[in-house]
Amino acid sequence: MATTFLSALSLALLLSSASAYNYRGGSWQQGECDITRINAMEPSFRLQSEGGVSEFWDHNANDFQCAGISLHRHTIHTRGLFLPVYHNAPMLVYVLQGSGIYGVTISGCPETFESPQQSPDQGMRSQKFGDRHQQIGFLKQGDVVAIRAGDAHWAYNNGDQDLVVVVLQDNSNNANQLDQNPRSFFLAGNPNWGQEQQKEQLRFHGERRHEQKQHEFGNVFKGMSVESLAEAFDVDEETARKLQSENDERGMIVIVGKGLQVIKSPLRERERETESREYNGIDETICSTKNKVNVDSPSRAAIYNPQAGRFSTVNRFTLPLLQFIQLSFAKGSLHRNAIMAPHWLTNAHSILYITRGDKFIQVVNHKGQAVFEGQVRAGQVLVVPQNFAVLKQAGEQGCEWVEFQTNANAMINTLSGRTSALRGLPVDVVANAYQISREEAETIKNSRRETLLFSASRPSTRRVASA
Length: 467
Description:
By secondary structure, the protein is α+β, with helices and mostly antiparallel strands. It has nine helices and 26 strands. It has helices spanning 2-19, 62-67, 191-204, 226-233, 237-243, 267-276, 321-325, 427-434, 438-446, and strands spanning 45-49, 52-56, 69-76, 80-87, 91-97, 99-105, 113-118, 127-133, 136-140, 143-147, 152-156, 163-170, 183-186, 216-219, 253-255, 292-294, 303-305, 309-314, 328-334, 339-345, 350-364, 370-377, 381-384, 389-405, 412-414, 453-454. Strands 17, 18, 19, 20, 21, 22, 23, 24, 25 and 26 form a ten-stranded antiparallel beta sheet that branches. A seven-stranded antiparallel beta sheet has the order 1-2-3-12-5-10-16. Strands 4, 6, 9, 11, 13, 14 and 15 form a seven-stranded mixed beta sheet that branches. The longest helix has 18 residues, at 2-19. The chain starts with a helix and ends in a 13-residue tail after the last strand.
């Protein structure tokens, strides 16, 4: 009884804290951005590490600044370990390909994974623990992981192909009480080493302007004195100096030569347990709350049209932690030339990342101006501001994409289709608004019986515009 009460109390504190995160400080909300043009963007900064590659979009670009977000992509090679790090803002991570393991460390939570080790001088009856650490999760393609601001985390590729993740950092979230610059606080390594090399290369080519557009990160132990670290960890100064990783040239992703030795439960059992468990929000605490969901399964699609494609969503109802960090997620797939109904998000910005193929996108602002019209291809990102109308049509090879959304429960309104704004208007209102006959008005209202995803009704004749 006491345990249930404490769990409920912990959840209540979590949700009450989450209410403080409803405010976003992005410039669009403050009226500072007059968006007349947005752009499909690719990474502008690339950092090579021993065990992989990190790519960063220019967070100073107008689109990103006004939405208050930053984006980066990490490619972790086999046996690559992304060093433990925490950030100044909450994050959503999407696994593009590969598999691995990861951990999110929350200070104050118990170490639930324990490794028994026999004590050699006391025989078989006595054991002591060789290692204890917090729970480890498994990563696979299609996983979405939510990470709170300030929670240290790491990832390791134990598969046989590159592990590739795309990460959105919500710098305008109220959890970040500094400016909108993304900051990463590493607990190990010397990530600045690679950054300094890049700066030297940029200076050599005379491109100083890019120096101010880089993500900021470094080892937090590096700025502390060796004497203080030795005292804090109760170790000798030589060991304390290693925490600072002064001469470490491996970057932020390092290779683990003999493979990572950690305690983890069998993959199949853990995945089965996760899928079968019902998360009712009452028996969860911050230490045990679910932080991951997979969106790849066609069976979990919220909208499915066999002739057009499917659309899946992840929000605070399917992943309650999102209520705390005020983000949500969606994944879409369109067949050849299929269309996603013209629509707008009523309460969130949408950051689109194309994962396969390409699609033609039109974005229109409140002045009736097309602020974007063109093809967006795999690997590119497009920021769609809140309430801007957008239409998407897949290319000849079809298209898949994911959307990071800046609200815990992003809501969509459509302009065409069975549940659209125009469908809900009286025929006479439509006829008089557009100066058309009642018959034409009825056709406009009722011609599309699908809700969100439309099959191509005619060969595509759209003009291919450059992104």
